[in-house]
Design brief:
Length: 498
C-alpha cells in the first residue's frame, strides 16, 4: 500500500438483501458498484468464519479458523445454478430490517442450503470443481466436516466432553465414522464449496471493478473449535486437554480487572518445531481469499498476556514472549509478499513497534481517539501519522462518528476538537469533517465505515466490547444508492489524491 488510496468497511452480514442477512451474491455486487461510484479502491470486511449463537454471533468467535460462514451464501445464485426453485427463494425471504435476526436467518438459510445439497446429490453427474475443491482444501475441510457432524450428534457438547475415542481422535473410530456418515460429511463439504464458489465469483467482480478486498484474522481461536480438537499440541493444555492458560489483556485505565477472553494460548515452542505449519496454512488460506489481511491484536506476536485458566479475571496474568520475528521470517520464505495490516491499537510497547517496523507492516490510527488529553502528541492525530499507516474514522468496536459525537464525546475531547478545527461541527457536519480529516491525512490508506459515510448514529453501532447483547446485528435495510453521498465521497477522494 505505497500509493494513496481509500476504502469502506462494511461486513457481509450488514449488506441489504431480501433474506435477512447480507450475502456474497447480488447484494455484494451492488455494494461493489457503490464503491466504484464513490471512487474507492478497497472493501474491508470482518472475519468470514462461521458464527455461533452461543458465542453471540461474533465473527471473532468461531469454531473454525478456516471454514466459511454459510449464512453468507447467496440464495439468488443458488437459483441461477438450478439448485433451488423460485418457491424456495420466496420461502427464504424475510422482511427488510436494520438488524439481523440470527436465529430466524439460520433456520431459513439452512433449510435452503439442505435443499441445494439434495438437488445436487440427486444428480447423476458430480461437479468436477466440487471434487477439486475437496482435494485442494482437504487439509482443513475433512476435519471440519467431521467436527460439525460429530458436534451435532453429541448435542452440541464441547469436544472435550465427547466419548474418549472421539475426544482423543482414535484412528479406527474416526475411520468408521467417516464411512458410516459419508453423506453427512459430503453435505458439510458441499456447503463450504458453495460459499467458496460464490466468493471466487465475487473476487472476480471486485477485480473487474478495481476493488481490492481486505480481510481479518483473529489472532486466537476458540477452545471449542475444530482447530484445538485436531491440534491440541499447538495449545497450552493439560493432560485432560483443558486449558492451562487463557488469553486476555492486563488491567488498564479502562478496565481495573483487565479482559479475560478465555481463548487457549498457543504453545509457541511446539509451533516452532514444525516450522509454524498451522500458521502458514492459515495465512495462505487468507491470502487466497483477500488482497490484504488485517491481523487482530498484533501485539500478541511480540508478547502475550497469559492468565492461569482458573483465574476469574485477567489481573493475575503475566507477559510471555512470543517468537514473532521467527514467525514472520518464516512467512517471508513462504510468500513473496506479506500484505498485512497490523492492528496495533491500545497500549503498544517498543517491542511491538519494532516487530511491526521490521517487517514494514502498516499500523492503524483511529480519528476518534485523537482528541484526548495532550492531543497534540496523540499518535491518532493526523499530523503524527507516518505514510505507512491506515487511518480509520472508527472501527467495528467503536461507536459511529455521529454516535460518538452525540453520546460519548467528553468535554476534554470537545475542547480539543474546537482548538484543532477552530469550531465545533454541527451534527450534520461532523461525519464529513472526520471523513475529510482521514482522506487528507498522510496515511497511505484511509478506511471509512459505511455507517459514517451514510451519517448513521449510535443505533448503527456494530459492536460494543465487553457487552454480550445486541452486537453484530446491524445491517443496511436497503441497498446503498444515494448518488449525492457517492458523488461527495468521490470528489473528496479525488481532491486528496486517493
Amino acid at each position: 500500500m505505497k500509493d494513496r488510496s481509500s476504502g469502506i468497511l462494511c461486513h457481509i452480514s450488514s449488506l441489504a438483501s431480501s433474506f435477512g442477512i447480507g450475502d456474497i451474491g447480488l447484494s455484494a455486487q451492488r455494494f461493489v458498484d457503490f464503491l466504484r461510484r464513490c471512487g474507492q479502491n478497497y472493501w474491508q470486511v470482518l472475519p468470514l468464519n462461521p458464527t455461533d449463537g452461543a458465542l453471540g454471533n461474533s465473527p471473532y468467535s468461531s469454531y473454525s479458523a478456516f471454514a466459511f460462514n454459510t449464512l453468507f451464501i447467496s440464495p439468488e445464485l443458488l437459483y441461477q445454478d438450478g439448485l433451488v426453485t423460485k418457491e424456495d427463494l420466496k420461502n427464504a425471504e424475510l422482511p427488510l430490517s436494520d438488524a439481523v435476526d440470527f436465529q430466524v436467518v439460520t433456520e431459513k438459510k439452512y433449510r435452503l442450503l439442505l435443499k441445494a445439497y439434495e438437488t445436487y446429490s440427486a444428480r447423476p453427474v458430480k461437479l468436477r470443481e466440487f471434487e477439486q475443491f475437496c482435494r485442494s482444501q482437504s487439509y482443513w475441510l475433512d476435519q471440519f466436516a467431521m467436527f460439525v457432524v460429530l458436534k451435532h450428534g453429541f448435542r452440541n457438547a464441547c469436544w472435550v466432553d465427547w466419548p474418549v475415542e472421539y475426544r482423543d481422535r482414535h484412528e479406527g473410530t474416526l475411520a468408521r465414522f467417516a464411512k458410516d456418515y459419508a453423506r453427512d460429511l459430503e453435505r458439510e463439504k458441499f456447503l463450504q464449496f458453495l460459499f467458496y464458489k460464490q466468493w471466487i465469483a465475487l473476487q472476480t467482480y471486485c477485480s473487474q471493478n478495481g476493488i481490492k478486498l481486505i480481510g481479518d484474522i483473529p489472532i486466537y481461536v476458540n477452545y471449542d473449535s475444530v482447530d484445538v480438537w485436531v491440534h491440541p499440541d499447538l495449545f497450552k493444555l493439560n493432560t485432560d486437554k483443558r486449558p492451562v492458560f487463557v488469553a486476555g489483556v492486563p488491567p488498564d485505565y479502562f478496565s481495573k480487572d483487565g479482559q479475560r477472553w478465555g481463548n487457549p494460548v498457543y504453545n509457541w515452542d511446539r509451533l516452532r518445531e514444525n516450522g509454524f505449519r498451522w500458521w502458514m496454512d492459515r495465512v495462505r488460506h487468507n491470502f487466497m481469499l483477500f488482497d490484504v489481511v488485517r491481523v487482530d491484536h498484533f501485539r500478541a506476536f511480540a508478547e502475550c498476556w497469559e492468565i492461569p485458566a482458573h483465574e476469574k479475571t485477567a489481573i493475575n496474568g503475566s507477559w510471555r514472549p512470543v517468537p514473532g520475528v521467527e514467525l514472520f521470517e518464516t512467512m517471508k520464505k513462504h510468500f513473496p509478499k506479506l500484505p498485512i495490516i497490523a492492528e496495533d491499537l491500545g497500549i503498544i510497547t517498543d517491542d511491538v513497534v519494532a516487530l511491526k517496523d521490521r517487517f514494514g507492516f502498516p499500523g492503524m490510527r483511529v480519528l476518534m481517539f485523537a482528541f484526548h488529553n495532550e492531543y497534540k502528541k496523540s499518535r491518532d492525530l493526523p499530523e503524527n501519522y507516518t505514510r505507512n499507516s491506515v487511518v480509520f474514522t472508527g472501527t467495528h468496536d467503536n461507536n459511529t462518528v455521529l454516535g460518538w459525537f452525540k453520546e460519548d464525546m467528553t468535554e476534554v475531547e470537545r475542547r480539543n476538537m474546537f482548538e484543532y478545527l477552530g469550531k465545533i461541527p454541527s451534527l450534520d457536519e461532523i461525519g464529513w469533517v472526520m471523513i475529510e480529516l482521514a482522506l487528507k491525512s498522510p496515511a497511505n490508506l484511509a478506511i471509512i465505515p459505511i455507517q459514517d459515510v451514510l451519517g448513521f448514529a449510535q443505533e448503527a453501532r456494530m459492536n460494543k466490547p465487553s457487552t454480550s447483547q445486541g452486537n453484530w446485528k446491524w445491517r443496511l435495510s436497503v441497498p446503498v444508492a444515494d448518488k449525492r453521498v457517492a458523488e461527495k465521497l468521490r470528489k473528496l477522494t479525488v481532491k486528496y489524491q486517493r
